[in-house]
Amino acid sequence: MEYRNKPQLRDALAAEYVLGTLAGAARRRFEAWLLQDAALRITVNEWEIRLTPMAAAVREAMPPQRVWQRVSAAIAPSALSTNGSRASLWQSLVFWRGFGLSAAGAAAALLVFVGVRPPEIVERVKVVERVVERAVPVADGSVPHQPSYVAALKDGKGNTMLMIYAGRQAGEMWVKFMGDSMPADASMELWGLDMNGNPKSLGLVKAVGKNMIKLPDVADKALHDYKKLAVSMEPMGGSTSGKPTGPVMYSGDCMTFW
Question: Residue 257 in contact with residue 147, Cβ under 8 Å?
């Protein structure tokens, strides 16, 4: 039987195999296929996952005494065998044919039920109100594909002097200054410029190496309206007027990386 290009047949055989209704030569042949087909093993595993909760949800029930009495009576010798003795129910071909048809019908019904309605597990959970604290990872550039704001600020000659990075949901931006030290009596101040060119101070930049500037909100809100960034030279401690007072040293576009 060719089954590889018949997904419905593969699924039905896997389900019957898990249910135990696939027997005899058909079961042995299916087990041989399993050794050669990894995708088929995955299908069997999926059926086991779907059916196991159903079996676990069935409560164990003790049959009444009258059932045991009927079973005992049913398996007692009741028919003559070919050598003159009575054949038991276990040797009755009629019984096994009927049992096989009943089992096959039950398995088919179960397959339809599982295919139409996935099994459900009901859990009782006691909900208690509590404060949940969630740590927000620092946007330090360790995850290169993290959605972020990036900018390369250049001087008048086109040389990149500052690299700026801020994760989209982070509350700080990381700045790397690649120029020389600034005079001891001056500060470099970073500004965000909206579409109309209006400046807003974002903080002071240290003159050497990498440093972090805390934002008033997550970057997606604090930097969203700024299309350009610029750095001006200001008196020690930064501008006191809320606007740049010294020369603009570096500038560049503020771009989104997502």
Answer: yes
